[in-house]
Amino acid sequence: MDATLSGNQAAQGLATVHKPTGRVSDPIFVGLLWGCGIFVLVLLGLIIAMLFEGGLPALQEFGISFLWSTTWNPVTEKFGAGVMVFGTIFSAVIAVIVALPLSFGIAFFLTEIAPGPLRRPIGVAVQLLAAVPSIIYGMWGFFVVVPLIAAYVQPPLIEWLGPIPLIGALFQGPPLGAGMLTAGLILALMILPFITAMFVEVLESVPSMLKESAYGVGATTYEVYRNVSVPYGRTAMVGAVMLGLGRALGETMAVTFVIGNATRMSASLFAPGATIASTIANEFPEASIGSLKLQALLQLGFILFVISFIVLALSRMLVRSKG
Question: Transmembrane stretches, by residue range (predicted)?
């Protein structure tokens, strides 16, 4: 008989071994644990059922074209999710593109470059950014970021990049300040602390022997970062990025302040738009019980849930493929 056991075999062995139990307390404790686990499944099932059942009449009214229709007119009661789905994904992708290099830089600075007295204050500041309520980000973005972008960022970009074929479509339109780019930037600031914190943990888990060996053969700091630290923790890093993407997809109040809340689709970064979450936040109080508008909003919520589920499933696939 082989004296060694794999991890799974050892776990199975532990599960089947006889465990001493108390007279009363142990069964109660095990029952409570079962209750906690089942509670999660029941809660998730109730949320899915409520969204699906509540939004099903809208899907039956407009058909499967509800998913990509760009019409959203409460007056004529014509609803489609195309603009909101586009805005949700577009703004979240902008946020990840902006936040990812910043998170890499901050995390590597904290773990490799920063002197001891400076490391702790910056680390605490990153944690505090994660604790700021989203509505504060929204108000700060509306009163500070929007005017700055309208005055100093959008005009030169429209003038320099707008006439260029193909990419020029991304930089056209009036310099309003509020729009997809501003929403993406605010979202990037909001997901930055989460991604950075996970990157720091990943980089700190890299064995020092590996890095010292690389330094010993003459590698530079950048080469150690690129060839040792990042490859060692890329699985967890992918998970961190997808976690940030998931939060960006569902963010509500901050986006509502700065995205412009226009239910029309445009390829321009400067055009106002809407996300699923911002549309629900804006129009839910005006939707009466049983109305087609309320059913359309519930269907939007179900679509957002499906998108988040797809992102989670995709992240698990990426993690497994790179593990």
Answer: 28-52, 79-110, 122-153, 180-203, 296-319
